[in-house]
């Protein structure tokens, strides 16, 4: 029995079927569990669209939690997706839209610029880490860097709320504190995820562009001022 | 194989002056170490994998087979066309070979992973090395009768260029620069990469003309590390608006990093005129670039520039949006005011 349980353990992550200790089980357990499970997984064709979307959203939500509480887990790396980064990037760009000199169709970080900075920056960091001998795949790295923008997006939302109250010295101090904290958080979280895939003696070289990347974004958020 | 690069450069250069450059050419050389730093960067062949070699061999076989086929075709023509037919065949063969070589180059360029593998040796550095090279970029070495060692590495230069981009963005934002038909980001990246790549290739071209011993890789690395001084100066002066301070830093920090590059180039050039030409061009370009970056994106001079440019509105220009009286008919007034300020 112990052996059977041992055998079913590899599917522990996939299946929510739990076999309690007191029911005697015998026979080939692991294979049926695996196969029925697979049937379930492939039958997403006739499930409601709402469920599909909710499942994806839930996956994105779990990864958000991972970023907020970075504890060197590999969930963010194992099943990467680019939905979360896209959502965060669009949110950030929309929040940064409508900057100071909107009147003369210029100024303020434009939507496209934010978009380009985020994606171009992540790609450069990823290529750099690959060139330095990192063992992380391209999209895994993009995923991690994209998800780790989240603290900065939150900071942007806070900044907008603070800016409604007014833009004096106090408001700037509050914004500075919020942005600095979230910048540190972003850098720390992404390093926690990316550091393991790098050769130990070169971590500083990989972290520097990450630092620069989040610094530029954080600085854009800090200097943002809405149009009157 | 390229791993051995760091330590070997110094040892090889010690044997005899100028010896290091043609190390790869000496047939009986006892050293089996591939010296990355003195190697011509166009010969990336040592990093190619076996698959590519295999492919090349196959392609060469194909070319040979094709050539044989064409030979068969032209045999009867050649009898009465004589020399002319032979020439045509030769030309065709050469054209074929050129085409094949071009195709190989293109397929290699499109293969991202192959590219990464080719570039990887240039990113083979330790944090300590980068730090010491950054510091060394500000220390000119007075040794011009013996070729100085230049590290062929791209990590530091690339990161410095990106840092410069970030600093420029900062400067543009604080000065309220507005660029029509383009984003600040694009302009900053274009300026920095344009300078780095453009000036490197220009100086490399000049060095080639005057027969200076330097490779493109070394030139990129040298100029890239030379940007460290620019980064430092601009970071300080974009935040502390003090013209006097800028001029001092410009002469001191910018001058030091320029001197360092000039010394390295001097040591690798022979003759009076080539030295003056090469180093003069480089130092003028480098110093003026810092001056340009500072004043192009600076708060105070902004108004003056605008008023001077005022009447002929070019599509790409800077407009200070903090100056309320910036209208076409008030141009003279602002000019007078800004002249009074200075």
Characterization of the model:
The complex is a heterodimer of chains A (228) and B (342). Chain A is mostly helical. Chain A folds into 2 domains: 2-42, no CATH class; 75-222, no CATH class. Chain A has helices at 2-8, 30-42, 49-68, 75-78, 83-96, 111-131, 138-147, 150-165, 169-194, 203-222. In chain A, helix 6 (111-131) packs antiparallel against helix 10 (203-222). In chain B, helix 6 packs parallel to helix 8 (216-239). The N and C termini of chain B lie far apart (60 Å). The model of chain B is unreliable at 1-51, 73-79, 310-317 and 321-331 (pLDDT under 50). Chain B is built from 12 helices and no strands. Classes of the chains: A mainly alpha (228), B mainly alpha (342). The A-B interface holds A 101, 104, 106-107, 110, 112-113, 116-117, 124, 127-128, 130-133, 201-202, 204-205, 208-209, 212, 215-216, 219, 223 and B 116, 119-120, 122-123, 125-127, 130, 155, 158-159, 162-163, 166, 169-170, 173-174, 176, 178, 180, 183-185, 321. Chain B: InterPro entries: tRNA_Mod/Golgi_Maint. Chain B: It is a multi-pass membrane protein. Chain B: Belongs to the YIP1 family.
Poorly predicted segments of chain A: 32-37, 101-105
The whole-angstrom Rg of chain A is: 22 Å
In total, the number of strands of chain B is 0
> What percent of residues of chain B are in strands?
under 5%
What count of structural domains of chain B? 4
N-to-C terminal Cα separation of chain A, in Å?
72 Å
Assembly classification: heterodimer
Shape of chain B: globular
Write down the overall mean pLDDT of chain A: 78
Pfam family, one (chain A): Yip1
Domain Yip1 (chain A): 68-220
GO biological process, one term (chain A): endoplasmic reticulum to Golgi vesicle-mediated transport
Protein name (chain A): Protein YIPF
